[in-house]
Specification:
single chain; about 1200 residues; alpha+beta; nine-stranded mixed beta sheet; seven-stranded mixed beta sheet; 44 helices; disordered C terminus
Length: about 1200
């Protein structure tokens, strides 16, 4: 006990908790649910504990290297190490031992003088410096996953324009050499482009390797424009980091030019720097080659000592380019070039570039004359620390800090702050380097590095996917998985439930690309799927990163003050989403109302009632039946009892005391308990008996005893008792109308020796809509096709089935009444226009997928509540029955659980389905034998969802299990999960999915209309499959007479407004527990894809592919919050915890998502439509 008391005192957790309770109880008003506030505050303490693990003494030791001078002024090396060279300001903060691993790579990338192209009368030298975060590998950064190398050329000669042409062709030759380099891979060249709206923010245009070669002449001109604009040319690469082992690192090589003009007319040699900033390599990086360091610093050394001058220095030419400086040239270089002379083709290239430079570079001539006070600084002021050098560099990094989002891009701003700090330590508080060091070693810093590793893995996938070195991809994926496990699931660092959940979710997704035993990596890896999933993971992590950044900044007040000061100093460089004005006329002409009813929300969920409930202490004292002397204390004690503050603290102490060891950081466990208690306060507002009585109020009766068919009084709903037990009759009525719209009226019933029948059922989570599940995210329909024919003729039955499906789908499209997304074969989508124009190809695809028992479904939309399009997913399921009725075969993924959650509109069809598609053993579907067989399968599905932390699906599965067992074990806990904030976020994500699909339909329809208007006929749609296809005949416009877009633009716009309002409302709620920065970030991101009406308050989604990607990013960010909140609800569900603890994952279900869904038709996310493959720069950003 003494040891336990000592632990509480040393960590300060008890005192902190008491202080927080005192702060709460001293408020004049008390919140109904105080725990979200506790969570936000104690999260900061948890992060503070992590940050203070790095002692001040250790940090000082890492950032105070002893240095050794060289014969050149300002050039130093680290004492005891002759491998790193640079300025003293940088070298004091580097770890030479960590940088030695880059030595071989830097040497390998250094071009040999004889390989550097030049021309007559011109010399060309290349110097390489290490820049970027990798410079501080092992000090500020615990490790890095990418490297930036700056290759600056020094070219001397008589004409600057010729020098630019020589440089451009030299860079082009170097880029060309990377195509055949056996060690390294080129992924493209990033060309900087200045945004006119924000000139201080650089955006990049990526030229991929094929485009460079196909459009080389234009590329050379772009390179020359980049040089003239004083920007670096950036080549994106995968670089081999070890000569003896296939270890690769993501890299960027930046090319810059310094030109010395040698003219007989001028005694001085004039230096023109075409880099962004002269001497930037010295302030941003280090040299791993001494001769390169000496050559580089000599470029900018004064040519003649000041006292030797007869008069003032002559003014040197300077371009009008931004931030371009010209300073004194170095001592004379030999004009005898040791470089490689260009070939005739290269010589022609030099002339072409030179001509382009003359055309575009007129601003270089005439040179600006500088007199008196317009000269560049004092004659005695030179060197890397001269104000002329440091001021523009400081300004550049200050503006970058101002332009970075304070939370989403915190670590990028930290890097800029490091450079500013090292440039001028005296201008900043002594504590700043400690804050920077601790922040980059904290959870947010480590998460940032993991996200950078994610980008590196994407580079590897992109670079090696088409090579024989697939093992490199597999190894990097495994290392990434290991990093995630170490960050979130290691026992060395205590983490809260939300962080552990994030780690499990990410690991599960990465493992989808790692093969199981007996599988080859090639059979598992899908390049586009891998790239998109990895990118989505980073957006998923960004939500946590924003949250952690807010927590960390509370422990870094000086850094926060610096960032705020920069934003106040440079407000114009802060990116603001542009307000897009809608060009088309508003379809309504009036302001649309975004205040709507969302599904069948409980009264406590509407307007987040608990968020508004407060207790006025003074009012309670006046109205309470207490004595005056103890009135306040009595009110506060009652509040503590009602909110269970004492119980939570007791539970925490018991958990710590019973643990195998005291956690070094006591706060993550406390945060986890506080989050769980916040969920209790939010969800335990009704007695379980009342909720149970409400849910089981449905009156069931047997309408067909022979076939064990039940029905519900008042509606046409038929099926098993498990499917109907919690059916909400009021909610089912509109669902019944939807189902009727998708019932086939005319179809082939007999053809030759074959007979056919169709049974349509509502299935999946849709049957829970109403009292059990307040939100309808999707309507899931299972259309069972029963075809009877001669034995051994399954192939003909499949052909008949394909014809029936095609007739139904084409009829639905041609009616032009409901928005149809298309037909999906797994993840492969066939757009509505493809279905009509390429009938035979579609039939072949359908026959093949059916033969392989793969899922096939139609996705369309139906209007509900006059403001919302609800997705309808209709599966086509084939049963083949032989004439002797001895053999029955199904041609879809077997899912015995679906039978127990299928609701039919007809008693006869429910009975027919039972007889031909019910339990294989026959008899009562609810008897123990049949239930046991289905629940074995259900347990596997729950286990897979548990491993992926998909707690919403887990609780739906447990609810079905209870309904099948006819017990109430999981009834209340599942009801709470489906009424939690996690369910609201799931609803928002479903709306985002719908908005994406509706946007695709709208763009496809507009394209169809435009082509039909222009040519009278229509070809293939833009939204069709990306794979190569056979040519098809154009679709005559007469096939869809009076075609109109089936998506009503006004309703689509109103749905967008409703979603936006609901998202802001939910994310601002205290129970959301993420803080305000996330809401602001999401709003800004959505604004980039919204068009506002200039005259009304209405707004709409912009009709472009960028909107699809922005919505996908928001979706990924919201999923993190859904997963973490659902995990909190699961932790307060003891029955669910007990039921899932002993479930063992089945090997069959542990494969890729498609394998999982082959057993689980009602998974709402696996077969969701994905945006089209993105351009490489989007994938790799």
């Amino acid at each position: 006990m003494k040891q336990f008391r000592s632990y509480l005192e040393e960590t300060g957790v008890e005192g902190t908790f008491k202080n927080m309770v005192k702060l709460l109880l001293n408020r004049p008003t008390l919140p109904y649910n105080p725990y979200p506030g506790f969570v936000l505050r104690f999260r900061q303490y948890a992060e503070k504990f992590h940050m203070e693990q790095e002692s001040i003494g250790k940090i000082q030791q890492a950032l105070r290297n002893a240095l050794q001078e060289t014969y050149l002024p300002n050039l130093f090396c680290v004492k005891g190490h002759d491998s790193v060279w640079g300025l003293s300001s940088i070298l004091r903060a580097v770890n030479p031992s960590s940088l030695e691993k880059y030595q071989w790579l830097m040497d390998d990338l250094t071009p040999h003088p004889e390989d550097i192209m030049s021309s007559q009368d011109y010399s060309n030298q290349a110097m390489l410096a290490l820049v970027g975060p990798a410079v501080f590998d092992g000090t500020f950064y615990p490790y890095v996953h990418n490297i930036q190398i700056r290759m600056e050329h020094l070219i001397t000669g008589p004409d600057v324009k010729e020098g630019v042409a020589v440089f451009v062709n030299s860079v082009m030759a170097y880029i060309d050499s990377m195509y055949s380099n056996p060690k390294h891979l080129i992924l493209g060249v990033n060309i900087p482009d200045i945004d006119e709206e924000y000139p201080d923010i650089t955006v990049y245009d990526l030229w991929d390797p094929d485009k460079i070669q196909d459009e080389k002449e234009e590329f050379l001109q772009v390179l020359s424009d980049t040089v003239i604009g004083n920007k670096y040319i950036c080549m994106e690469c995968i670089l081999k980091a070890d000569p003896y082992y296939p270890k690769y690192i993501r890299g960027q090589i930046q090319f810059g030019l310094n030109f010395i003009e040698i003219s007989p007319e001028n005694v001085e040699e004039g230096l023109v720097s075409f880099c962004e900033f002269p001497m930037a390599c010295l302030h941003e990086g280090v040299f791993l080659n001494r001769s390169h360091a000496e050559q580089y610093i000599s470029i900018f050394s004064p040519q003649v000592d000041p006292f030797q001058r007869d008069g003032p220095r002559s003014a040197l030419g300077q371009s009008d380019g931004p931030d371009k400086l010209e300073i004194g040239g170095p001592r004379s270089y030999s004009r005898q070039s040791r470089n490689r002379q260009p070939t005739s083709a290269q010589d022609q290239g030099i002339r072409n570039v030179k001509r382009h430079v003359y055309d575009r570079g007129s601003h270089i001539m005439p040179r600006k004359v500088r007199i008196d006070g317009f000269r560049i600084g004092d004659e005695n002021s030179y060197g890397p620390y001269a104000w002329q050098i440091t001021t523009p560099i400081k300004s550049h990094f200050q503006k970058r800090i101002a332009g970075h989002h304070m939370h989403a891009e915190l670590c990028d701003a930290v890097y800029c702050t490091i450079i500013l700090l090292l440039l001028d330590r005296d201008s900043y508080a002594q504590e700043l380097p400690f804050e920077l060091y601790r922040l980059l070693h904290s959870t947010v810093g480590l998460l940032y590095l993991t996200m950078e590793q994610n980008k590196s893995v994407r580079y590897m996938v992109k670079g090696f996917a088409s090579t024989s070195q697939l093992e490199v991809i597999r190894e990097n994926l495994a290392l990434y998985r290991e990093s995630v496990v170490h960050l979130f699931q290691s026992t060395l660092n205590e983490r809260s439930t939300e962080q552990k959940t994030a780690g499990k979710v990410i690991v599960a997704q990465v493992e989808d690309f790692l093969p199981r035993e007996g599988m080859s990596f090639e059979s598992v890896l899908d390049v586009q799927m891998a790239l998109k999933t990895l990118k989505d993971i980073n957006w998923y992590c960004l939500t946590l990163s924003i949250q952690l950044a807010e927590d960390s900044l509370s422990q870094a007040p000086i850094l926060k003050e610096v960032m705020i000061a920069m934003k106040n100093t440079f407000p114009k460089v802060i990116p603001q989403p542009l307000t897009r004005h809608r060009q088309r006329r508003d379809p309504t002409g009036v302001d649309m109302d975004a205040n709507v009813s969302h599904g069948l929300e409980h009264e406590h969920m509407k307007d987040l009632l608990h968020e508004k409930l407060i207790i006025d202490v003074n009012n309670s004292i006046e109205n309470g039946d207490y004595g005056k002397t103890i009135a306040k204390e009595a009110v506060l004690i009652q509040y503590m009892l009602d909110t269970h503050l004492d119980g939570v603290w007791k539970e925490y102490l018991l958990e710590i005391a019973r643990a195998q060891y005291f956690p070094p950081n006591p706060y993550p466990r406390l945060v986890s308990l506080l989050r769980q208690q916040a969920m209790r306060m939010d969800l335990f507002f009704e007695k379980p008996e009342q909720t149970t009585e409400l849910l089981l109020a449905t009156e069931l009766k047997v309408c067909d005893p022979e076939n064990f068919i039940y029905t519900v009084t008042g509606v046409d709903a038929y099926g098993t008792s498990s499917a109907l037990q919690v059916l909400d009759t009021l909610a089912f009525m509109p669902l019944g109308q939807i189902i009727q719209m998708f019932v086939q009226q005319n179809y082939i019933q007999r053809k030759g020796a074959y007979r056919a029948g169709i049974c349509l059922a509502l299935s999946g989570p849709s049957i829970l809509y109403g009292k059990m599940q307040p939100f309808l995210n999707e309507v899931e329909l299972h259309e069972h096709y029963y075809i009877q024919g001669p034995p051994g003729c399954a192939g003909d039955a499949i052909q008949l089935f394909a014809m029936m499906v095609y007739n139904h789908v084409s009829d639905l499209i041609l009616r032009n009444t409901v928005p149809v997304v298309g037909v999906f074969f797994g993840e492969e989508k066939w757009a509505w226009e493809d279905v009509l124009t390429r009938k035979q190809s579609f039939m072949d695809m359908l026959v093949g997928a059916t033969s392989r028992s793969e899922p096939v479904f139609l996705k369309a939309f139906i209007l509900m509540d006059h403001w919302r399009y609800v997705p309808v997913r209709k599966y086509f399921l084939l049963h083949f029955i032989t004439d002797d009725e001895l053999d029955a075969e199904i041609f879809y993924p077997d899912n015995p659980v679906a039978f127990y959650q299928s609701v039919f509109l007809s008693k006869d069809r429910a009975a027919f389905h039972y007889q031909n598609g019910g339990p294989t053993n026959g008899g009562d579907p609810m008897n123990k034998t049949n239930i046991r067989q289905a629940q074995i399968f259900l347990d596997k599905m729950i286990s897979v969802s548990k491993d992926r932390c998909d707690w919403m699906t887990v609780h739906r599965g447990l609810l079905l299990k209870s309904l099948m067992n006819r017990d109430q074990v999981h009834l209340i806990e599942s009801w709470r999960m489906l009424h939690s904030m996690a369910a609201q976020i799931e609803y928002l994500i479903a709306m985002l999915d719908s908005l994406q699909d509706l946007l695709v339909i709208t763009m496809e329809s507009l394209e169809y209309l435009n082509r039909n208007r222009d040519r009278g006929t229509t070809g293939n749609s833009q939204g069709s499959r990306a794979k190569s296809r056979t040519p098809s005949k154009p679709l005559p416009s007469a096939l869809i007479p009076d075609f109109e877009c089936t998506v009503d633009e006004a309703i689509f716009g109103r749905m967008t407004m409703v979603f936006h309002q609901k998202m802001v409302e939910v994310t601002q709620a205290r129970i959301f527990m993420t803080g305000t920065p996330l809401t602001d970030f999401l709003k800004a991101k959505l604004k980039t894809c919204i068009e506002e009406d200039p005259r009304l308050d209405n707004f709409y989604l912009a009709f472009n592919t960028e909107s699809l990607f922005r919505l996908e990013e928001v979706k990924s960010m919201l999923r993190f919050v859904q997963d973490s909140l659902a995990a909190d609800v699961h932790q307060i569900s003891p029955n669910a915890i007990t039921a899932t603890e002993n479930l063992a994952s089945d090997e069959i279900l542990q494969g890729r998502p498609s394998s999982v869904v082959s057993y689980m038709l009602n998974d709402p996310y696996v077969y969701r439509p994905r945006p089209q493959a993105q351009m490489m720069q989007t994938i790799l950003e």
